[in-house]
Structures are given as C-alpha cells and as structure tokens.
C-alpha cells in the first residue's frame, strides 16, 4: 500500500495547489503538518508560478492500494474517439444530431 501526505495550499490569487510527500511518518498528526505548513507560508519557502502560498486549505494522508488504477482522464476525454453528443451541456463527439454548430 502506498501512503502519501497531501497538503493543499491556497495561493495569493485564490487558486489552490497540492504538495505531496510519499511515505510520511506513521505517527504524524494533522496539527504537526499544519504547523510546518504555516511555517513554510511565513518564511515564503515555496513559490508556485511566481505566487507565494497564502494559507493551508487541507492536509490529509492518502492510502492507495498499488494494485488499483487511479482515474487520470477527465470525463470529457472519454468521448474523444466517439461521435459527438451533448454531454452535461457540452458538445461531445458521440451523436452528430446534437451538434449546435452543424
């Protein structure tokens, strides 16, 4: 089983970014993680695309069984090879009769 510590930070522009650390300590508490993350924010230790970290949004440990695949494609990408159709308000390639442009 693969274990990953994930800390989600808010950036100065309001967007978020995730910091991942593989194989964290097993006795790690959320309070310890938030304290270190806040120290990183105070010291301006990281910049993402020229933006400083603004706040900690969330922190958690993710445990994933390595035998199970993770979903990496977006739902819209599933229809990439199919004909067009309307998928949740968007135009896909499943049914040409739904294409607003034709």
Architecture blueprint of SSEs:
Blueprint (H helix, E strand, L loop, with lengths): L1 E10 L4 E7 L7 H13 L4 E2 L2 E14 L19 E4 L2 E4 L9
Antiparallel strand pairs: 1-2, 1-4, 3-4, 5-6
Helix content: 10-25%
- Range of strand content: 35-45%
> Which word captures the global form?
globular
Number of helices: 1
Radius of gyration: 20 Å
With strands numbered from the N-terminus, the spatial order across the biggest sheet is: 2-1-4-3
- Give the ordered list of helices and strands: EEHEEEE
Mean pLDDT: 78
First-last Cα distance: 50 Å
Biggest β-sheet description:
4 strands, antiparallel
Helix/sheet category: mainly beta
Description:
This protein is mostly beta strands and 102 residues long. The chain has 2 domains: 2-64; 74-102, no CATH class. 13% of the residues lie in helices and 40% in strands. The strands form 2 sheets. The chain has a 4-stranded antiparallel β-sheet, with helices on one face. Strands 5-6 form a two-stranded antiparallel ribbon. β3 and β4 (51-64) form a beta hairpin. The radius of gyration is 20 Å and the shape is globular. Mean pLDDT is 78; it is low at 98-102.
Compact overview of the structure:
The protein is mainly beta. It is 13% helix and 40% strand.
């Amino acid at each position: 089983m693969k274990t990953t510590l994930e800390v989600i930070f808010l950036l100065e522009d309001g967007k978020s970014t995730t910091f991942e650390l593989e194989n964290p300590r097993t006795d790690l508490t959320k309070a310890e993680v938030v304290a270190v993350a806040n120290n990183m924010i105070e010291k301006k230790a990281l910049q993402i695309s020229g933006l400083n970290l603004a706040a900690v949004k969330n922190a958690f440990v993710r445990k994933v069984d390595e035998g199970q695949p993770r979903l990496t494609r977006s739902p819209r990408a599933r229809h990439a090879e199919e004909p067009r159709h309307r998928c949740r308000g968007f135009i896909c390639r499943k049914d040409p009769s739904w294409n607003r442009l034709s």
